[in-house]
């Protein structure tokens, strides 16, 4: 494997996870974290960087599709899981791209409603999905470097011009707060939904390479992509923390990013960032809806009609949800993420581990344990926290909304121990 292959693969992995929606999360997280920004960085990067990259490693091992991630539990479970994940994708992160576009590129200049932006936005998305234009692929290759250059310039300017004085934070659990905010990147889901694309691309470009050489390439590329993601996320969180005393506490995510870009880069830089982010949002929405339509098409004997209907329904969802502001969509997403993300994380981890430790029995035990102990966090995110607290207070990390973690790990260990003893007997 030459350096060119490593560079191309590293950048492809970085681009896979570096969505425009992710840009609006770290600055506000740092803004609220203040002097606790480092703990928040560590938590955010576990769920927003480490887990997604492990998802890529799992894809490298499986050499399959998203369906293969959960089929050891059962084919029916895997199918239901796939449908749920795709529904979440078209109902939440896809519409969020329209809201981000409105708040960053439309609202500052024109007094038009969200609904108009959402309608025009998803009408264009539908046309691109139906026609499968290659323009977006070419555009995407230019957008990510453009956004990255502006962001790194903004971060570097803030680091070298600001005093490192931080306000005190009111966040009670900064590390777990960072982990849960990282759920909103949807990057773990992205890893299993479109991670196979990277694997297929490597197989096509490196036909003569052995399995071990490809795995080594993915590991190295994953490391450098992870370094890039960590640098950007940490830099944006730190930048938000450095400005924690310069804006009102109730400022929205998109407004904070826009205001930071104006203060650091000036008006021209802010406008350029808004345009690039909006275009990147558009490519993300097209990618999500195309992927969903492809999945449904495959389930219906490669029916073009199924593809078009799915694309249309997805765009209608986009218009309906895209008419709300970004913060509202993020709030609405919390319950679904509190339920689906633990399952996704566990499926990724199980697929990364050696097969001898992850038999079908182990898979079933660990996944169902995770689902069971995710229910309290799911209910808590729906406003029922005070009602269920007396019943779940004994669960470790339940106060951090991570009550599923230890039970899942214990289920993994105990199911393997029992299975090993059964073999010996």
Automatic annotation (TrEMBL):
GO CC, any one term: plasma membrane
Bilayer disposition of the protein: Multi-pass membrane protein
InterPro entries per the UniProt record, alphabetical: Brnchd-chn_aa_trnsp_Livcs
Keyword match Oxidoreductase: no
Superkingdom classification of source: Bacteria
Membrane in keyword set: yes
GO molecular function term, any single one: L-valine transmembrane transporter activity
Compartment(s) of residence: Cell membrane
Keyword annotations from UniProtKB, A to Z: Amino-acid transport, Cell membrane, Membrane, Transmembrane, Transmembrane helix, Transport
Gene Ontology BP annotations: isoleucine transport; L-leucine transport
TM stretches of this protein: 35-56, 76-94, 114-130, 142-162, 182-202, 223-244, 264-293, 305-322, 328-353, 365-385, 391-414
Family indicated by similarity: Belongs to the branched chain amino acid transporter family.
Protein name stated in the entry: Branched-chain amino acid transport system II carrier protein
Organism encoding this protein: Flagellimonas hadalis
């Amino acid at each position: 494997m030459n350096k060119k292959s490593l560079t191309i693969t590293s950048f492809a992995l970085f681009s896979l996870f570096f969505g425009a929606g992710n840009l609006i999360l770290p600055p506000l997280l740092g803004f609220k974290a203040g002097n606790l920004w480092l703990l928040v960085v560590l938590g955010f990067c576990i769920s927003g960087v480490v887990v997604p990259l492990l998802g890529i490693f799992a894809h490298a091992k499986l050499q399959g599709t998203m369906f293969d991630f959960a089929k050891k539990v059962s084919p029916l479970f895997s199918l239901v899981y796939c449908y749920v994940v795709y529904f979440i994708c078209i109902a939440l992160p896809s519409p969020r791209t329209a809201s981000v576009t409105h708040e960053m590129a439309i609202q500052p200049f024109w007094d038009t409603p969200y609904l108009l932006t959402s309608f025009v936005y998803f009408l264009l998305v539908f046309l691109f999905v139906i026609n499968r234009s290659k323009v977006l692929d070419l555009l995407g290759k230019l957008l990510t470097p453009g956004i990255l250059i502006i962001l790194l310039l903004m971060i570097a300017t803030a680091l070298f011009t600001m005093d490192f004085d931080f306000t005190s934070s009111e966040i009670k659990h900064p590390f777990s707060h960072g982990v849960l905010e990282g759920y909103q990147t949807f990057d773990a889901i992205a890893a299993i939904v479109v991670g196979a694309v990277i694997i297929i691309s490597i197989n096509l470009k490196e036909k003569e390479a052995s399995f071990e050489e490809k795995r080594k390439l993915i590991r190295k590329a994953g490391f450098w992509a992870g370094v890039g993601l960590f640098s950007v996320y940490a830099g944006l969180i730190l930048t938000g923390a450095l400005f924690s005393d310069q804006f009102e506490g109730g400022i929205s995510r998109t407004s904070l990013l826009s205001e930071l870009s104006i203060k650091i880069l000036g008006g021209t830089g802010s406008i350029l960032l808004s345009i690039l982010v909006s275009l990147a949002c558009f490519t993300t929405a097209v990618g999500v809806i195309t992927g969903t339509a492809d999945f449904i098409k495959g389930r219906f004997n490669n029916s073009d009609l199924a593809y078009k209907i799915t694309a249309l329904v997805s765009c209608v969802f986009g218009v309906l949800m895209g008419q709300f502001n970004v913060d509202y969509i993020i709030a609405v997403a919390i319950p679904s993420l509190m339920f689906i993300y633990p399952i996704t994380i566990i499926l990724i981890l199980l697929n990364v581990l050696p097969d001898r430790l992850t038999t079908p029995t182990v898979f079933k035990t660990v996944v169902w344990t995770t689902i069971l102990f995710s229910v309290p966090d799911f209910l808590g995110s729906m406003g029922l926290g005070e009602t269920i607290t007396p019943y779940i207070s004994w669960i470790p990390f339940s106060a951090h909304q991570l009550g599923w973690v230890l039970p899942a790990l214990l289920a993994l260990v105990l199911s393997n121990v029992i299975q090993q003893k059964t073999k010996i007997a």
